């Protein structure tokens, strides 16, 4: 008699001659189960099973049996039994089905077989009962979570019979997260059926199926479309096939090798092309209709036959958040919700936006027939501003707005965020676009602009070019980094003259940092003037800068000196010798930040140290403001909460470790205080040197008085949000005292 392992190579022999009563073959399905195939007497659907005559290896076997086409004296039925295993790699010798004393004992063939070999044995042994047997077997295999190895085994079993059914020819991803399928098959039933997606990561789900007539399909087959509601990330290109429950049996539809993959904007068109021909349950047709009307990259709001229109003025993306301003005209209240969408992520925005008056929108639609009777000419709150953060999805994926109407229709507006615009510029543009007298301005600032700025990231300012106008590298002493903005354009020549007249600064290394555009226009003229004065000067061109602090930071990043002197181009030394005094004070207090007194041109105090404040919303405050400079010039070097970075001497590494100046501030005052507190938290001490004075004016603003006051209020809110709560929890990190 021939053993099974020898008979596998003899596929032409009948199963009855290959199998022997009392012998069984084992096939591991996955890490925890195996199939045992054999012949014998009829058995119940479930029986106790014992492996290797070991009472500790007892389990409950699930058995599928069938009558043999050619019964033997010793065996009238074939069987396939599913046995759980503990995953241990041990030889299989015997298996007993049934209770002790009454059970039937079988001997395993020496080696296990692969699933493909097991499928061939079952096909030969089951004969005309193969399809029913496979369906029962797969039913039991699919009754638990399906892994990739188990699914592969199921597909192999189904393909060994007649369970392969058609092909999937098109797969399309949708903006709603579902995957659209189109193909043909013989056994697909319209409605909702259980399916398992075959691929890198098998997924069990419910699929809505609709069928439609296809003249190019084989006889007895029909076209089908389906929607897979994917809960976890699954790409259409990773799908290899679909195991599904068809008419009374499990089937497998394979993805055709020449399949078409459609993207989210192409898929709705493919669905619309067959939607009117499909047949299925109403709930499935509704799902297909919704998918057919999903976003395909086009603006569809203007095509609505209702008085609903929308326009977008600005869209700015910053650090995963999006600031949107525009208008929505909906005088009859047809819109139920407005959502911001990206890939499979979405968030409602109409419950968090700020509305503002836009009479221009009312005027623009007054003469249109659709809006003529609907508009209320006493109400103009059509505008909106909204900041949405934490939307999720791929930040590089396209954004769009979805309007859901009360009659379940949807309409879409694609969004194109402005690329690489600084958050500060975007916020200032938004503020300038709103009438200062508008009742909504305060809410726009508090609910939209401040959160937008608080989450904004800042590109570090960098030096893109430099020109030496003297022996900069050979000069001794800490370099003086001077930030010269366009406001100081006309004063740079006189400034260089003052530096040349002071013996200390004439020989010091001087780095003048200019915005890129001004550098291109003025670098040659400044270089010639520096050479005339015989200064050791280096001109630096800085990019990604918005104010004097960004220019100073760019200069610090471009140099490698251990200690640097920062100086805003708007400040002028009150007397010569200031540089030497700062350097001497820093030599005695290495690792600290030391600033002089800042005064106005009338010789009154503008800044004389930042001190801890008792006000809960302002953790730092100034002293001596308005005093004559002479009243403080005799005071000693004093410890303060934060230095002024308009003029100071400091370790270069301190600024680098702190990450530079923080993003989000519209002005410079709170931006400087912010860095001062960051340095204090890292143990860097700050001092005020009263005996040195610099003269200059406050930060100039081209926004107008009202907008400038608003900018100051915004910066104070951002500063308080970042520091007040932190200091309440930690206690004030700065102690009063003097050196």
Helices, by number, come to 19
Structural category is alpha+beta
Strand proportion, as a percent range, falls in 25-35%
Mean pLDDT: 86
Radius of gyration, CA atoms, in whole angstroms: 39 Å
The helical percent reads 25-40%
Second rung of CATH, namely the architecture of the largest domain = Alpha-Beta Complex
The figure for the number of domains is 5
* Sheet with the most strands, sense and barrel status: 7 strands, mixed, barrel
Note poorly predicted spans. Answer: 1-18, 731-739
CATH class of the largest domain, named Alpha Beta
CATH fold name of the largest domain, please?
Spore Coat Polysaccharide Biosynthesis Protein SpsA, Chain A
What attributes characterize this protein structure?
739 residues; alpha+beta; Immunoglobulin-like; seven-stranded mixed β-barrel; seven-stranded mixed beta barrel; 36 strands; 27% helix; 32% strand; disordered N terminus; disordered C terminus
Structure write-up:
It is a single chain. The chain has 739 residues and is of the alpha+beta class. The protein folds into five domains: 140 residues, no CATH class; 130 residues, Immunoglobulin-like, CATH 2.60.40; 148 residues; 112 residues; 163 residues, Spore Coat Polysaccharide Biosynthesis Protein SpsA, Chain A. The protein contains 19 helices and 36 strands. The strands form seven sheets. A seven-stranded mixed beta barrel has the order 1-2-5-4-3-6-7. Strands 8-9-12-11-10-13-14 form a seven-stranded mixed beta barrel, surrounded by four helices. The longest helix has 26 residues. It is elongated.
